[in-house]
């Protein structure tokens, strides 16, 4: 969908006002008219955005949500990998406006626009970029189970840096049973989830044990004996040998009930 010049100007004002944080909002249709509904960005990092569910619901009260809008700060408007994945999840067009400052300038300016729509993109299991809340260790576990084993496991809201905030508890340990897993002591074997304490005093990281099996949906990768698939911040997702450091920081191994 194309944006009118007047709506673009409103979005640009929002993006400039929120600089140096990313701005976000929604395009909503009410009758035969479209409008831009600015939303809050509740992400903890300014170079990212998280649109709260209550803001989305409030926009829906005004009409049908047609598109997602956000800004890129001090970079081009081309979608990141998480933008592409999120666009697929919403099933609607996305519009990105880039804003930034030139060296020596006090005020940011609008640099460029880019629009795109769902096209079937899926992030690879190995080599994806890290983005907490979607393309993270739990997101990789979910995608592995969907693509490689045809098992759907539920998603859970996970606030940024939750493992550093006591009020958020132990999200992995408190939810693995609700996600369909049970603790086992005879592992690891293919498909087991390894729960670890990664640079933390809490269980904040998970991976999938592959052993010597290849990824069916991403063939041709070099073999890694005794492999574990995981995605540690801020690295690309990878397969590593499940030994040494990774085994030392393991808290427990869990297995999905369908694999018992």
Automatic annotation (TrEMBL):
The keyword Ribonucleoprotein does not apply. It comes from the Bacteria. It comes from Paracandidimonas soli. This is Proteasome lid subunit RPN8/RPN11. GO terms for biological process: proteolysis. Keywords: Hydrolase, Metal-binding, Metalloprotease, Protease, Proteasome, Thiol protease, Zinc. InterPro entries: JAB_dom_prok, NLP_P60_dom, Papain-like_cys_pep_sf, VirAsm_ModProt. The keyword Zinc applies. GO terms for molecular function: cysteine-type peptidase activity; metalloexopeptidase activity; zinc ion binding. The lineage of its organism: Bacteria, Pseudomonadati, Pseudomonadota, Betaproteobacteria, Burkholderiales. Belongs to the peptidase C40 family. PROSITE patterns: NLPC_P60.
């Amino acid at each position: 969908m194309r944006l009118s010049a007047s709506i673009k100007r409103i979005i640009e004002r929002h993006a400039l006002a929120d600089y140096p944080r990313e701005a976000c909002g929604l395009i909503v249709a009410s009758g035969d008219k479209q409008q831009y509904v600015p939303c809050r960005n509740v992400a903890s990092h300014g170079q990212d955005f998280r649109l709260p569910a209550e803001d989305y619901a409030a926009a829906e009260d005004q009409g049908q949500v047609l598109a997602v809008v956000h800004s890129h700060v001090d970079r081009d408007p081309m979608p990141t990998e998480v933008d592409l994945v999120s666009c697929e999840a919403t099933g609607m067009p996305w519009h990105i406006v880039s804003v930034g400052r030139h060296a020596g300038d006090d005020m940011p300016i609008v640099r460029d626009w880019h629009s795109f729509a769902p096209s079937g993109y899926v992030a690879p299991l190995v080599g994806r970029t890290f983005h907490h809340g979607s393309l993270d260790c739990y997101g990789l576990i979910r995608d592995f189970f969907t693509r490689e084993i045809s098992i759907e496991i539920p998603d859970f809201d996970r606030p940024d840096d939750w493992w550093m905030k006591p009020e958020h508890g132990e999200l992995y340990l408190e939810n693995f049973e609700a996600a369909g897993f049970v603790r086992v002591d005879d592992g690891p074997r293919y498909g087991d989830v390894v729960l670890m304490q990664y640079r933390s005093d809490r269980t904040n990281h998970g991976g999938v044990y592959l052993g010597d099996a290849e990824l069916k949906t991403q063939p041709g990768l070099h073999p890694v004996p005794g492999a574990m698939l995981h995605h540690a911040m801020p690295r690309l997702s990878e397969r590593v040998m499940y030994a040494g450091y990774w085994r030392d920081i393991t808290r427990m191994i869990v297995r999905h009930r369908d694999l018992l």
